[in-house]
Amino acid sequence: MGGALLKGWLASDAIDAATSAVFEPMSETDAVARARISGVRVNPDPATVSVDALVLAVKPQAVDEVLPRFAPIARRSLTVSVMAGVSLAGVEARLGSPRAVRAMPNLPAQVGAGVSGLFGPPSVSPADRRIAETLLQAAGEVVWVQSEREIDVVTAVSGSGPAYFFLLVEALADAGAALGLESDAAARLARATAIGSGALLAADPRPAAELRMAVTSPGGTTEAALRALDGDERALRTLMKAALAAAARRASEISGT
Question: Is 90 exceeded by the pLDDT of residue 110?
Answer without folding.
Answer: no
